[in-house]
């Protein structure tokens, strides 16, 4: 303890020390009554017999009294004073006790306004330190007349100050723990949000839809509202998706997003980020600030309604090439704090994931296009055959690279008969497509010009696959149509369906035989049917009837019902309806429809 006359003790820390101010904030006390600190002030008053006692905490602009007893009005109600009325600031800056028997004769404080305004004459203040020794304020006793402070009085005051400081340190520790918990919860919430966004990106192949889900996924957890802008070929904005924490504000968000596509000036944050590839974070923004960045004043009006006080704009780039893909703007209204550096890092991570998703999506679309072109190049252009209508469809699976082993084929023989084939090579990849191409060519090459039955041709196909080392397995239907007579062989394939002119449907079930390429049969069966004029024969692969939740028989019944309900439709329309009646395509689908006139 030091009794100071004219300020001979060296200062140990300034009032503006950031660490001290941070510790002071963690006390979570202000110029409002605090029961615990009021009791410390009351103890000082009773035990020392002074008219005024204070628990005084000092920041860089003022002192405030969470604990006080005996102050005159208006100070008792305000519970704070400017530093011009503070003796305790000297306790803080010097880090030692300050004791003035008569403050009016000490140069350090004799001009302090606390003397005339608060009636302070005698003063004794003991430092209140945090766990690191930083002085946050003082526990002080005040008399309105000169007083010779005794050693016992100062000892009591010191003991009470230590107890009061313990309360301060406890509150700081609790706040630190709460802050750590909040940070952990925030980090957990952000990780959960990022995981949800990653899943959302994985669920859709539509880039614009993915960006809409991104905007909806980050509000209100990271921002009050969010806008995702994708770059157009000319460097402008092609598309903007937006979301607001208040669903009723969505119309304003959509209007603002629409204006962004054409009304941003070169100096706008969005276009600046898209040019530089660097994020921009700003606080203390007003809607009027938008007037210098957009050509349409309506954007400022809408922003005011949406809430516009701070923002962070982050770039969305392709992960490998670094190509600029777009930007994401996160905005907070005046009722929410500005964005922190940590939140900016989270925004950048979200943008990185978005960039990866967009890049993967574009690559997938390119691969899908190439695969579809390849697939269709392997499929036959249907011939024009007198007395017969031929219609076909091929649809890739909804998942994967859209290349697979399903195929259809039809060609006329020299004798006037027509060969029909539909097959499904195992797999959904380039190897399956290659195997399909080989198998289709083997069927054509082996069957053309021969009058053998389909069963014999299928057996020969088995031998050719084994002899030529075609390493694949496939289901297939091979049929020959001769007028109104149909011969067919079935290697493990779903049964053909026949729609009769009267609207009834036959399912051509036969005893199942092994797939091609597995256990070759020396002799495969040939089945024969006679069909009436006007009948429609339907050959298809299992993608048309598969449903993960149901058995294949249910799928066949669904297609049967579709045929019965639409028996009078032209072949093209009937093909469309059959495809539309299929369940979600987890597999590619080939469909061949033959109408015998």
Automatic annotation (TrEMBL):
The keyword Hydrolase applies. Residues 32-178, 206-368 form the GAF domain. Pfam families: GAF, SpoIIE. It comes from the Bacteria. The keyword Hydrolase applies. This is Serine phosphatase RsbU (Regulator of sigma subunit). Keywords: Hydrolase. Coiled coil: none annotated. Residues 394-596 form the PPM-type phosphatase domain. Gene3D superfamilies: 3.30.450.40, PPM-type phosphatase domain. It comes from Winogradskya humida. InterPro entries: Bact_Sigma-Reg, GAF, GAF-like_dom_sf, PPM-type-like_dom_sf, PPM-type_phosphatase-like_dom.
